[in-house]
Design a protein that fits this description.
alpha/beta, Lambda Exonuclease, Chain A
Length: 274
């Protein structure tokens, strides 16, 4: 059962990325799918060459926020009390520890970013739709689904949270208030992967999916987007996306996709020299 796996939380980041094309085609994750279809050259730099870059402040904040939400959810799963003071102490420790693992390219005042991140968390704990005594079905669980019967690779992933009753939750940090329709569309590949993984692990469909956005504004807020269970049509679309990924890697198709996204790409200079 998926809840049993949650006893040993998995690491959110892929610390050992595969570099051979055979490895990359043997398994696939939502993050790799999204990167490949956003820009194939970016995928090549990140996953094939495995080029290391300093973390952006936004990525650092997102990683730390996720780690605190994981601790909060695990405490509820274990039926343990975890107060604000303990969460704040854990936040401070994680803020420093994450920078020991990977440096951060601070463009603004670090203390200001840290204060904003904690305020977002406080806001979430005050506004979350999840009641304190609701025991999760699973927390930060690593799961996989073998699609060889469809001629496709193994899908792997880590689900942030499965609420009681089989509702899949994914946490997001953002600087803008999300539009529900766009948020559901932009995250459809990831959510379809999670749906597939949940069904493979439990043998039953999810009851629904939720995006919990922690929005960094002058006055932070929480936006929850409710999404219906994945349909057969959406699953077929996911299989087509995976098929395109595998075929592209087999051809070593790593052409760039110049656009507005280049402004924030960590491989901008490498791309210019390509």
């Amino acid at each position: 059962m998926i809840a049993q796996v949650a006893r040993v939380p998995a690491q959110k980041n892929e610390t050992k990325r595969p570099r051979s094309l055979n490895d990359l085609m043997a398994t696939v994750s939502a993050s790799r799918l999204s990167c490949f279809h956003q820009c194939r050259l970016k995928f090549y730099f990140r996953y094939v060459l495995d080029l290391k870059k300093p973390k952006t402040p936004a990525l650092h904040v997102g990683t730390v926020v996720h780690s605190i939400l994981q601790a909060w959810n695990l405490a509820r799963w274990r039926r343990q009390e975890i107060g604000t003071e303990k969460l704040k102490a854990l936040f401070d420790t994680n803020w420093q520890d994450q920078q020991k693992e990977s440096s951060v390219n601070w463009k603004e005042d670090e203390e200001s970013e840290k204060s904003s991140a904690w305020t977002m968390l406080e806001t979430y704990f005050n506004q979350t739709p999840i009641v304190q005594n609701e025991k999760p079905e699973a927390v930060e669980v690593s799961v996989e689904a073998d699609l060889k019967n469809h001629g496709l690779p193994v899908v792997v992933g880590i689900i942030d949270l499965v609420r009681a009753g089989g509702k899949i939750v994914d946490f997001k940090t953002t600087g803008q208030t999300p539009n529900p329709d766009r948020a559901a569309h932009q995250n459809q590949t990831q959510l379809c992967c999670y749906s597939l993984l949940y069904r493979e692990s439990t043998g039953k469909p999810e009851s629904g999916l939720e995006l919990h956005h922690l929005v960094k504004l002058k006055t932070p807020k929480v936006v929850v987007t409710q999404i219906d269970p994945t349909t057969d049509k959406q699953r077929t679309k996911l299989f087509k996306i995976i098929e395109s990924y595998v075929e592209g890697l087999a051809r070593q198709d790593f052409v760039p996709s110049p656009g507005l996204q280049c402004v924030s790409c960590e491989f901008f200079n490498e791309c210019k020299r390509w």
